[in-house]
Amino acid sequence: MALGERIGHVFRGAAIGVAEAVPGISGGTIALVTGVYERLIASAGHVVNAVRYAVSDVPRGRGWRRAGQQIGYVHWSVVLPVFFGMVPGLLLAAKLLEPVLTEYPEHTRGLFLGLVLASVAVPVSMAGRPWRSGHVVAMVLAAVGAFLLTGLPQAELTPHPLVVLVAAAVAVCALVLPGVSGSFLLLTVGLYEPTITALNDRDLGYIAVFATGMVVGLASFVKLLQWLLDRHRRMTLAVMAGALLGSLRALWPWQTEERSLSAPGDNLLPILGLFLLGLAVVGAMFVAEQRRLRRAAQELRAANELTTQESTYQPPESYRTPVNR
Fold first, then answer.
1. What residues pair up with 255 in beta bridges, in sequence order?
2. One Pfam family for this entry, by name (predicted)?
3. Domain boundaries, the chain
């Protein structure tokens, strides 16, 4: 992989990290838009397999062979740059976005609304055509479910370590499931502010419990999602698209603290401008990624044609060595 592409993965990871800190934005959505989603999911699945084989094989004296094979299948050239970008992106967003979200909630939601709305095109394009009626129904049901989920009133939970562990295990699903915001789930149960405060204050105890919950949730969910993408790819992507559409409710700029929606009011023009900016940014990223995929497909076809021509090439009769009988 070229150095420029590795640097690009670092910036993609930073964008995913920022998204994970913002209520209403899914890190999985950003991974989809930037074209690294399926490689990250596949790599996470191989890591889970490696741990499982290490736990089962090594105590029985079978060695590390199967675990080592799974580790070798991981797309490290993608995973490591994304990780190195995601961690500082998350920490920076936790530090800088909290006051912006507090002081300009309508403006930021308008921007995020445009970002996520444009992102719906990603799973739709990945699913391809034709769509069956079952896919459309699944998308509608997922949209309704996400719409109802994002309308739940905010609750308050005591940040007990067990509560934090379970909440982190559920919230990490947003990292692998586009359309579901882990930060929004934390906000719904009242753990968003304690988590942001723990990150800013470097509360290692809270962070350790939260990270453990993330590992548990990731190990439990990623294999299921990988299986769904392998066996029911189009249906899974249709559900993802529906979840993205339904999650737009959380990003409607004009809403009360109880999350009831209202008609457009103050600051309509600047919010509309930010909304269009969000559409344009993700649209440009989507178009660039589609062009990159087309170029890669053309290069692969050209390489395959060249290989076929070389394998079927026959030298002229005059160049062939006569056979002595």
1. 261
2. VCA0040-like
3. 3-252+268-299
